[in-house]
Amino acid sequence: xxxxxxxxxxxxxxxxxxxxxxxxxxxxxxxxxxxxxxxxxxxxxxxxxxxxxxxxxxxxxxxxxxxxxxxxxxxxxxxxxxxxxxxxxxxxxxxxxxxxxxxxxxxxxxxxxxxxxxxxxxxxxxxxxxxxxxxxxxxxxxxxxxxxxxxxxxxxxxxxxxxxxxxxxxxxxxxxxxxxxxxxxxxxxxxxxxxxxxxxxxxxxxxxxxxxxxxxxxxxxxxxxxxxxxxxxxxxxxxxxxxxxxxxxxxxxxxxxxxxxxxxxxxxxxxxxxxxxxxxxxxxxxxxxxxxxxxxxxxxxxxxxxxxxxxxxxxxxxxxxxxxxxxxxxxxxxxxxxxxxxxxxxxxxxxxxxxxxxxxxxxxxxxxxxxxxxxxxxxxxxxxxxxxxxxxxxxxxxxxxxxxxxxxxxxxxxxxxxxxxxxxxxxxxxxxxxxxx
Length: 437
Known about the structure:
- Helix content is 40%, strand content 20%.
- By secondary structure, the protein is of the alpha+beta class.
- Strand 5 (50-53) and strand 6 form a beta hairpin.
- The chain is globular.
């Protein structure tokens, strides 16, 4: 049954419809826009390295979800999918992140045919030992390319410092060694387990006829067998396993050297999300980080003027799927940048967090940053691709844009102060640094 969500600040509603085959359709009309954006999102990402088949726990190598994404573009009939979309005036791509795999296209014409082609190639896997062996070499090159990227190394070194057991600490593409263990049978098993309509969403943005979308998506095949996909492994007895991520960090400081001009750093505070208020937690954390170290903050301007920092901080609030009692309910507030002395910046940021914890957040500053973020959020609705990408990211968190809008509207200074206490704990702090050779 179709339901419509409304938000006073947004012009068009969000239509949500779970079809009889289980796939969930999200449609955000953007009338008078020529461009249309569509994504099929699978609730399956790099952190999903374990799942259950009956009572049996299946473990897969890191990088399997990303490998599967690559291989779905290979067709039995030899068609080159990117060329087929181009013939229809569409541009197609895909990505795998920690929690999702998404296949998406943009087009200004022949929407129906582009949509049919997207649904077709995502539902027709073709894996052989020969094409899997060929793909290993391609993905190994990709892995090695990222290993040569100082920012990528710094980022994943930070995640490994923050987390001891959570699979977020592993590279999305896996390692050259792990992908050697991926087989065609393994890919088919993962496809059958996770690429189920009930574990997927079809997200459409633009001037789109909803009935056309529902009719096309209704032909999406039902699950071919009763395999339970899960984010948290269960024991054979059905009891929940207790492989919880420890509260503390794995390593407080990690440093390595690479060819680069200036030292780079990434500082992370480790937290956890709570399923019951995930949208509120995300919004409060983003506003909080900007209050602490955004470009308009007193702290940033003071240390930048003193020459301690080369440029504004990169600010990211990273959080995982909001599942009750899940060990994968990770979150982290990450501050990145470059500086002559990263250890000194680490100490300055820690001191600022402790100072704000003692003295509290200025109300005027809070209101200013809240308005800034809410305004930027609303302006994002002027870009079709931004809406689609944002909805894909929110799918694994069981959220949508309209829930975020409500969280902005009800955000208070007290909730941001509470986020400060819960998230910005120097005892759960790690720092990753890359220094010039």
